[in-house]
Write a structure and sequence with these properties.
5 strands; globular; 5-stranded mixed beta sheet; alpha+beta
Length: 296
């Protein structure tokens, strides 16, 4: 397993889950995913506490197989996940092109949903800035052209379509036309039920194997990481804020490129007399007008 640089993953690998049951989710729960190359998803309650989670790929298992995030504040869980990813070399401390994608979906797109999204983004940026690590942190990516086009055809928002695709990745018998009639609350419950099954399937031998791989990666990455941290252990608040500003500027530049691509796509749709997706489904959550943090 070689050390790799953190990359921004695509929608296609965002959600990797398998068969599930029909449990009932609480009304004020949120779905949170963090995508680097290691990827993790959480179900979070109204108090910001993790109630279930799943490590979505082998890389995530390598860095966090021995961690139980249940009961942790989701901001602290995020920080711990990023710390482990850095220690194992999935974040390249010598690179200025690291990126993280954070997705937050609620049963409704409320002020609380947006606040949680912003807090998680700010916490991740702060964790990197305090170590002088350049990493852009993005939230939402619903302006992806293919996703918006499909959602438009179905008459739902990209947010709900993204949740449907998450459930279909754990139950390939669920038809899109049937899922459209389901509430996001029920869709989220299916993901939460799968989390419990996936955690139960993590055997001790599998956890130990992942820990061994992590120790190997940490050993390979240790010298460069220690040198970097020693060089930046006494950063002042002004220096940290300057780093945060630089990270924000890099993110803004990427966002602008996204916006330019989105405008060009909308112009093409207009020329073909295809209107933007409607947002009239009472059970949909995301609004693509909130694109201030879309990745390139």
């Amino acid at each position: 397993m070689k050390k790799i640089t953190l990359i921004l993953v695509t929608l296609g690998v965002l959600l990797g889950v398998s068969a599930c049951t029909s449990a009932s989710a609480e009304a004020s729960e949120y779905y949170v995913s963090v995508d680097i190359n290691p990827s993790i998803e959480f179900i979070v309650d109204e108090d910001d506490l993790v109630v279930s989670f799943e490590l979505l790929n082998e890389d995530a298992e390598i860095i966090a197989a021995d961690i139980d995030f249940v009961g942790m504040n989701v901001e602290d869980a995020l920080a711990l996940f990023l710390e482990r990813a850095t220690e194992a070399g999935y974040i390249d401390v010598t690179s200025d092109d690291n990126a993280v994608l954070i997705t937050v979906l609620g049963e409704e797109e409320t002020d609380e949903t947006g606040e949680l999204r912003n807090r998680l983004r700010a916490r991740a940026q702060r964790e990197f800035a305090e170590r002088n690590i350049m990493a852009s942190v993005f939230t939402e990516d619903f302006t992806a052209e293919d996703l918006v086009a499909e959602a438009n055809e179905l008459g739902i928002t990209p947010g709900k379509l993204k949740m449907i695709k998450a459930v279909q990745s754990i139950d390939d018998t669920l038809l899109t036309e049937d899922a459209i009639d389901m509430s996001v609350k029920d869709l989220m419950a299916l993901i939460r039920a799968h989390h419990q099954e996936a955690r139960a399937a993590m055997t001790e031998s599998r956890i130990n194997a992942r820990i061994q791989l992590r120790e190997q990666l940490m050993e390979e990455n240790l010298a460069a990481l220690e040198e970097h941290l020693r060089a930046n252990e006494n950063l002042t608040e002004e220096e940290i804020n300057a780093i945060l500003e630089e990270i924000q500027e890099r993110s803004t530049n990427r966002i602008q490129r996204w916006e330019d691509r989105k405008e060009a796509w909308e112009n093409r749709m207009s020329e073909r007399n295809i209107p933007p997706y409607n947002n009239q489904d009472d059970e949909t959550e995301e609004d693509t007008t909130d694109t201030e943090e879309n990745p390139s």
